[in-house]
Amino acid sequence: MLNFNFFYPFALTSVGLVASAIWRPRLIYEYPYFMGATFTAFILPQAYALYGDQWGGIYLRMTLLMCFLCVACCWIGYQRRPHPRLLEKFNIPIDLARFLQGGIVLVLLGSYFTYKFSTLAEEEELSTQLTGIGTVYLFFGGLVYPGFAICFYCALKEKWITAWVATAGAAVIPMQAALFYGRREPTVLFLMSVGLGIFFIKGKAAPRWAIIAAIVGAMLIIPSTSEYRELAREDPFAAFKEINFTEQFREALAPDAIGELKNATALIAATEETGDYECGAGYWNEIVFRFVPAQFFGSRFKNAFMISGEHRDLSDFVYDVLGFRLPPGLTVTGMGDSFNQFGYFGCLFFAAVGYLFKTLWAATNRPNGIVAQILYIQITTSAMRAATHQTIDFLPAFIYGLIFIGAIAFYARERGAFAAPFSSSPVPAQLLSK
User: What residues contact 413, with CB distance under 8 A and at least 6 apart?
Assistant: First the structure.
């Protein structure tokens, strides 16, 4: 089976999902289709380069099979009917004035902790602050993003001046992260917040040309991210003029270029050689890593909650098995880390997330779907990150959204909202039949 060429099924599936979204632009906001765009823009060029060079031999074929299985599972998991009990949980009538108040609080908290992070003297690079009090600042600094989505939603819905002012203030941090630091995930989250907000309130989807431009632009820009970050500190507009994006893209396709899919191939090879699967431990350990701060409880207390007493370092794991050092700053992709967890069955992670998104999407289309809409906006980029970075990041991001958006929803719910029977607002038949 592994002698079969899986590059073409992977490419056809990814491009097919994108083509469907271009044909019907509203589909780009649904899970299988924005994931298809993610695989096409980020993974497919690297897969093409490795396939042309046959880097990794049989392990490359395993990687390409994993790519195909994962993108196919994005579509397969989305075909199930929405979960009725979860739909009921998200059926929450909201007082928009109080909802806006909660959104402003999130923006203020996120702005304060982002400022506190910027005052740290040890490091300036956002991506290098992985330990110490900086992780706490980053944790709460992320609240500006759901705060922005809430404020923008209320501004579109009610056209309140206060909401527009709060939206403008909240937009400063994402725009700084995009222009001066070249941060990909905050940039996409900001754009998805705007796009989905307009879609949920106005019913207007992105035009076809914008979808095509976004995917092609992402293909060209992603290989240039590191160079852009170095140049953009002084003048981001000059950085755009100075970088030759086409040349950078061409170099990324070279046989000797470093890349995330090479890392995935190496991780799959190391896992296959040793049979040392984590069997889901990585998902639990990542939740502990994100939500139990060693700064307050100590490393011993934190490690006591982790399976095997520690968080697996994938770079060390690959080096110990293969003698191949993963380049710092690059990811192992969701194909690599899900295989490290469960082998080929790791692709079912994408099917499970697809089922979750199908239920959330149905909830967003209900009359009282505001909370589901804001949560949906927040976790779209987390789902994309599961493909481009690693799948173990998704659950902590989902829990993060549930905690803080749920707290705002609890504060803003209309009186007696949780007493309303589910049967009073039935699920549209066309949503259940999708």
Answer: 92, 93, 94, 95
Nearest to 338 by CA among 5, 62, 25: 62
Tell whether pTM > 0.85: yes
Which residue has tokens 């093409």? 48
In the three-class reduction of DSSP (H, G, I as helix; E, B as strand; rest coil), residue 328 is classed as: coil
Q: What is the pLDDT of residues 177-217, one digit of tens each?
A: 887 777 888 888 999 999 999 999 999 999 999 999 999 98
Secondary structure class of 94 (helix, strand, coil): strand
The residues with which 94 forms a beta bridge, in sequence order, are: 413
Total Cβ atoms within 10 A of residue 345: 12
**Coil, strand or helix: which one is 413?**
strand
Cβ-in-10-Å burial (0-12, 13-18, 19+) of 208 comes to middle
- Res. 414: pLDDT tops 90: no
Tokens of 301: 């207390």
Angle subtended by helix axes 58-77 and 44-53, to nearest 10: 150
Closest by CA position to 217, among listed 189, 192, 184 = 184
Stated as kind and residue range, the H or E segment containing 431 is: helix 429-432
Predicted confidence (pLDDT) per residue in 77-136, tens digit: 999 999 888 888 888 899 999 999 999 999 999 999 999 888 875 444 444 435 678 888
Provide CB contacts within 8 A for 371, sequence distance 6+. 90, 92, 94, 405, 406, 409
CB 318 within 8 A of CB 266: yes
Distance CA 352, CA 108 (A): 34
H helices of 31-160, in order, are 31-38, 44-53, 58-77, 84-89, 96-118, 133-141, 144-158
Report the interhelical angle of 260-274 vs 314-322 (nearest 10°). 60
